[in-house]
Amino acid sequence: MILTVTLNTALDITYRVPSLRQHASHRVSEVTERPGGKGVNVGRVLAALGHEVTVTGFAGGATGHEVRDLLASEAPGVVDALVPVAGATRRTIAVVDQHTGDTTQLNEPGPVVTPAEWSAFQDVYEDLLGSVSAVALCGSLPPGLPVGAYAGLVRTARAANVPVLLDTSGEALRRAVAARPDIVKPNADELAELTGSHEPLRATQDARRRGARAVVASLGAEGLLAHTSDGLWRAAPPSRVKGNPTGAGDSAVAGLLSGLAQHLPWPDRLSRAVALSTATVLSPVAGEFDRAAYEELLGRVSVTGEVTAA
Amino acid sequence: MILTVTLNTALDITYRVPSLRQHASHRVSEVTERPGGKGVNVGRVLAALGHEVTVTGFAGGATGHEVRDLLASEAPGVVDALVPVAGATRRTIAVVDQHTGDTTQLNEPGPVVTPAEWSAFQDVYEDLLGSVSAVALCGSLPPGLPVGAYAGLVRTARAANVPVLLDTSGEALRRAVAARPDIVKPNADELAELTGSHEPLRATQDARRRGARAVVASLGAEGLLAHTSDGLWRAAPPSRVKGNPTGAGDSAVAGLLSGLAQHLPWPDRLSRAVALSTATVLSPVAGEFDRAAYEELLGRVSVTGEVTAA
Q: Judged by CB atoms within 8 Å, which residues 62-91 of B form the interface with A?
């Protein structure tokens, strides 16, 4: 069983409008809804790969109810261990302009989580750690949580001997890196914000010095750069692809976790992550991955690097 | 008891964002939610005026549940007689740019109402008509309903001897006018679309020829023009006011219904409607009215016109 944590789950809503104009009134021509938040997306991809997955985090209000209903109906392989909160789960609205294809995004901040709710979550989390092979901590913190929330969750996982992957940003990332997570997966901007360096090789090295045992930086179309105690690798798709990058980072996390749970060596984990994220860009539905493309890409990801002498 | 009908109820959501930019990602700084749809708004204003009010129409899904919860908590004087549907009540999203003050509006289409649900509604409506002094039919039709839906509801009300006010637009208005509603309240655009004339005096006359017993056209800051079998009146606020016109038309409908239910003569109904809609423009909260301003304005609305010789 793999566990993913999404403290700020979301009801992801997509609106299609013929043409978005500021200060005008629009009739939405198509509405789609998905259960969202990074860890929920990771969980869906893991379930699609055949893993047993549990998702936890918070869900509340009518929107939280919808997220749980959609999770049950659209991702039946995912076990829902979300913890109830009094506040309402946030909505995110992606407004797709059908004329230009561009997307305008509106993200609600999320519910204010009380100290009692945070404490209840930590109990659930600690219980779940007893039966999982890996855990991923994903996304932003909702209002009300201490900025060191992820640092605490990293320490709890490490105390329970469960390998922990962290995918967040800003001050929450900075604090949690110091708690020595097994893997952090920043994108180029998050890595630069953490380390002050825009040079990925230097920045991943710096992130390891700050506490991360392994750093896997996602560099967009260039693929992944992994800096680990076993060695340094670059993994890239066989060619650049065009498509919708929404969810590509979450798919990379799912690939890394999938390989971690199966004790694969780093090059295989990276191949899986790059193939999955590329297959996500290629899928016509945002956040889904194209399974045929994934299987075809898996053997064609280029992984180059050097193994550190033991 | 006054009845208002909202076939396409809505969860009205307002987002405040520092500055709305197309194709960018925005963190919403403030989220507010209200139960919406024209008839629901009219019902809230009537309840605030001290009338007994029942609202009916359709509500479904998680959003319909939220609309009913909000109605119970924020408009406790309004009796909820909404009919359940399998589809989800639509959301409307008003994105307010805090820098410019402008609003960009996104309206979902609403649930597809099945013939069985429409039939269930008609039974509820006919039952409710037995105990009401007036009924208002408000707003757009959700997908799935016949375009003659309002025409049927007008005929049912007239057969039950309940005076009926109609506030809709387009083909639904055209069909229902022919069923001889007691009052229609188009705005200038709706009236021009119905009659082909942009000259209000000519257009209101034409709308009466098409079947409406009385036509009250809302002409924005100029107030109301009423063409009735008792006479022709213009009613205007004492001075032009600045503010948010959202909900001003619904408040005018509430004023007309309030006066109708109390058998007031036309000039008093029109004074009430203009004072309420002006007090709504003056309120800092969209769709609410400023009670002190309403009471102060009530004696200062100018009503000019001529009474038709009996």
A: 62-63, 65-66, 69
